[in-house]
């Protein structure tokens, strides 16, 4: 695998991930964008929940569901210049032009301290776009395992590098797919956010893990994987490296977690055999999910992993896994988080997890 790092005309970084056999990437961004066209937003502290809210008003102007002819992630061609100067590519990662978090300024915010009311902080961090393929109509489901493995190389490279930036506390590798969940670009892509704090959901997992430790119970995440394996009811697939199941307390109509069998706390810890096995399975899973309703399934998918610059307890309690959720509950119905879910965070699930697991398992068997 070869990484080529270059700069777009406004100074943002662009990286290509290629097989060694492919020609060198030498194309130059000829759009002549103004340097520093991105601006840093601010973050406000919600004193009621202890959570940080990024206020990114400058993002309103971003492009919304462009046609293939105007797609910023399609490769460039004469007369049609995009974010990716090459005429073809395998996997490309670049800094988002409309970032919610940006490391441009020098000030690193202290997110551990409760600020005075009205004292906002720079939305420090980084937001990157991962273009999975140069095929506008593709998706994870259409990638072969060699191509998927370049996507994974990009995830691992970015986890390592962004996790080393001072002030970054969590590197979140994720994908939103489907207009039904607010995706503004159809081109197959994921994102990476490097947050200046440990985001609430990850912090909640770590708090539960610390509580298990304090109570003298077995390590939370390893124990959970063991319990799902022993029960077997919700497993949709497993091999010697990974186990995929619908979680016991799933909150969305379709929800799958994929855990490594062996303790790994970060994408950077995976062995070549673990990577290879994941890259064979994951596109198959997406293909199976797409055939549940004869229409591509809207989903959100993202990795929980060890925080960057982890404390001793965070390093002890972190265990890598992928969490994937869909809001589709029937061919023509979406689960919309309403009052209980949105205002109170109290989820009511419409689909029993065992039924969802059975459907996914059966579909997976018939599509692979
Ligand atoms: Zn495109």
The main sheet comes to:
11 strands, antiparallel
Radius of gyration: 21 Å
Q: Using the coordinates shown, work out and report the CATH topology of the largest domain.
A: HIT family, subunit A
Low-confidence stretches: none
- Given the structure, what is the number of helices? 7
CATH class of the largest domain: Alpha Beta
The averaged pLDDT comes out at 93
Lateral arrangement of strands in the main beta sheet? 1-2-5-7-9-8-13-14-12-11-10
Helix content: 25-40%
Shape: globular
Could you give the count of β-strands? 16
Strand content: 15-25%
Bound molecules: zinc ion
Name the CATH homologous superfamily of the largest domain. HIT-like
Give the domain tally: 2
- End-to-end distance: 27 Å
CATH architecture of the largest domain, by name, is 2-Layer Sandwich
Account of the protein in words:
This protein has about 375 residues and is an alpha+beta fold. The chain folds into two domains: about 1-200, HIT family, subunit A (2-Layer Sandwich); about 200-365, HIT family, subunit A, CATH 3.30.428. Helices cover about 25% and strands about 20% of the residues. It is built from seven helices and 16 strands. It has helices at about 145-165, 200-215, 220-230, 270-290, 310-315, 340-345, 355-365; strands at about 1-5, 15-20, 40-45, 50-55, 90-95, 120, 125-130, 170-175, 190-195, 235-240, 240-245, 255-260, 300-305, 320-325, 330, 335. An eleven-stranded antiparallel beta sheet has the order 1-2-5-7-9-8-13-14-12-11-10, with helices on both faces. Strands 4-3-6 form a three-stranded antiparallel beta sheet, with no helix packed on it. The model has no long low-confidence stretch (mean pLDDT about 95). The structure holds zinc ion. Zinc ion (ZN) binds next to loops.
């Amino acid at each position: 695998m070869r990484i080529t790092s270059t700069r777009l005309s406004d100074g943002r970084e662009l990286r290509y991930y290629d097989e060694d056999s492919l020609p060198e990437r030498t194309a130059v961004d000829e759009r002549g964008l103004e340097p520093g066209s991105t601006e840093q937003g601010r973050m406000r502290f919600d004193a009621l929940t202890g959570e940080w809210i990024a206020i990114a008003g400058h993002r309103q102007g971003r492009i919304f569901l462009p046609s293939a002819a105007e797609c910023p992630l399609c490769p460039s061609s004469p007369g049609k210049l995009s974010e990716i100067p090459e005429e073809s590519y395998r996997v490309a990662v670049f800094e988002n032009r409309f970032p919610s978090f940006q490391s441009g300024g020098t000030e690193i915010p202290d997110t551990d301290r409760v600020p005075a009311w009205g004292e906002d902080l720079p939305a420090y961090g980084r937001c990157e776009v991962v273009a999975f393929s140069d095929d506008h109509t593709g998706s994870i489901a259409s990638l072969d395992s060699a191509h998927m493995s370049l996507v994974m190389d990009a995830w691992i490279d970015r986890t390592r590098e962004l996790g080393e930036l001072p002030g970054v506390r969590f590197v979140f590798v994720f994908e939103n797919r489907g207009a039904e969940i607010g995706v503004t670009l159809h081109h197959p892509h994921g994102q990476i956010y490097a947050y200046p704090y440990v985001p609430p959901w990850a912090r909640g997992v770590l708090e539960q893990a610390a509580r298990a430790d304090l109570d003298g119970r077995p390590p939370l995440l390893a124990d959970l994987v063991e319990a799902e394996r022993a029960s077997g009811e919700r497993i949709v697939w497993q091999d010697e490296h990974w186990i995929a199941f619908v979680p016991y307390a799933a909150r969305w109509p379709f929800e799958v977690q994929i855990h490594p069998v062996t303790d790994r706390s970060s994408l950077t810890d995976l062995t070549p055999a673990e990577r290879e096995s994941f890259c064979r399975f994951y596109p198959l899973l997406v293909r199976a999910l797409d055939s549940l309703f004869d229409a591509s399934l809207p989903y959100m998918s993202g990795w929980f992993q060890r925080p960057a610059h982890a404390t001793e307890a965070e390093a002890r309690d972190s265990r890598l896994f992928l969490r994937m959720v869909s809001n589709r509950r029937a061919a023509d119905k979406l689960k919309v988080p309403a009052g209980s879910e949105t205002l109170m965070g109290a989820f009511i699930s419409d689909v029993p997890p065992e039924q969802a697991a059975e459907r996914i398992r059966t579909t997976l068997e018939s599509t692979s």
